């Protein structure tokens, strides 16, 4: 069975991703420390799709977490499931993108994307048969749209024959009053159309 690397970008992407890992861990009988707690062989089938097995029969999520400010990732580290993730794959900037696509795509994001791609490369090389990537992000924020689009472009360039799937949260005027969200989304959608194989659009309402 082919393995999948998950990439979580921005506050929204990391919040969705953290909940995703809690559900996947429960599905495979993996507790918050990465240890198997069940004996049902059917629940442990295909566990390698999302997890790497490390020493002492522990399982580590094949996940790369990215944000341009450290707050969200610090919250993930402090959460109940925080110890399950690989610390080297939690990559944070220092000052955020301030809801600005250009900061995520051209300036702040461009400063850390090389480090992110290196983590993605390491996770990809540790697989036996890489199936593809899934990326969680928001199209309204500066990090999710800008840095998310930048990573999508580079993942497609480096892995042209692998599936690239995104779960993209679209902005909603009823939830947020940030004026630039539609512009961020419009700029990011271009990269989604050009470079992804599948994009699942999620309404923020």
Task: Give a quick summary of the entry.
With 205 residues, the protein is an alpha/beta fold.
Helix content: 25-40%
What portion of the residues fall into strands of 2 or more residues?
Answer: 15-25%
Structural category: alpha/beta
- Order of secondary-structure elements: EHEEEHEHHEHEHE
Unreliable sequence segments:
none
Distance between the termini: 35 Å
Mean pLDDT: 94
The gross shape turns out to be: globular
Biggest sheet strand order reads 5-4-1-6-7-8
Overview of this protein structure:
The chain is of the alpha/beta class and 205 residues long. It has helices spanning 10-27, 71-78, 101-105, 108-125, 142-158, 181-195; strands at residues 3-9, 51-54, 58-61, 63-67, 90-92, 130-138, 163-170, 198-203. The strands form two sheets. Strands 5-4-1-6-7-8 form a six-stranded parallel β-sheet. The chain is globular, with a radius of gyration of 17 Å. The mean pLDDT is 94.
Keyphrases for this structure?
single chain, 205 residues, alpha/beta, six-stranded parallel sheet, two-stranded antiparallel sheet, 6 helices, 8 strands, 22% strand, globular
Compile the SSE list and pairings.
Elements (H helix, E strand, L loop, with lengths): L2 E7 H18 L23 E4 L3 E4 L1 E5 L3 H8 L11 E3 L8 H5 L2 H18 L4 E9 L3 H17 L4 E8 L10 H15 L2 E6 L2
Parallel strand pairs: 1-4, 1-6, 4-5, 6-7, 7-8
Antiparallel strand pairs: 2-3
């Amino acid at each position: 069975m082919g393995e999948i690397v998950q990439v979580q970008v921005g506050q929204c992407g990391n919040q969705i991703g953290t909940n995703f890992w809690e559900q996947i861990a429960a599905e495979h009988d993996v507790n918050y420390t990465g240890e198997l707690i069940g004996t049902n062989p059917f629940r442990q089938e295909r566990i390698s799709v999302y997890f790497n097995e490390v020493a002492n029969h522990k399982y580590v999520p094949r996940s790369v977490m990215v944000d341009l400010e450290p707050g969200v990732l610090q919250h993930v580290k402090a959460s109940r499931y925080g110890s399950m993730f690989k610390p080297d794959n939690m990559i944070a900037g220092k000052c955020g993108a301030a809801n600005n696509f250009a900061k995520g795509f051209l300036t702040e994001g461009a400063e850390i994307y090389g480090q992110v791609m290196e983590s993605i490369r390491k996770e990809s090389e540790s697989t036996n048969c890489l199936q593809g990537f899934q990326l969680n992000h928001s199209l309204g924020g500066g990090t999710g749209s800008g840095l998310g689009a930048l990573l999508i472009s580079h993942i497609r360039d480096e892995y042209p024959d692998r599936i690239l799937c995104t779960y993209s949260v679209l902005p909603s005027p009823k939830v947020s009053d940030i004026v630039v969200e539609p512009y961020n989304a419009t700029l990011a959608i271009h990269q989604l159309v050009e470079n992804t194989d599948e994009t699942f659009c999620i309404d923020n309402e």
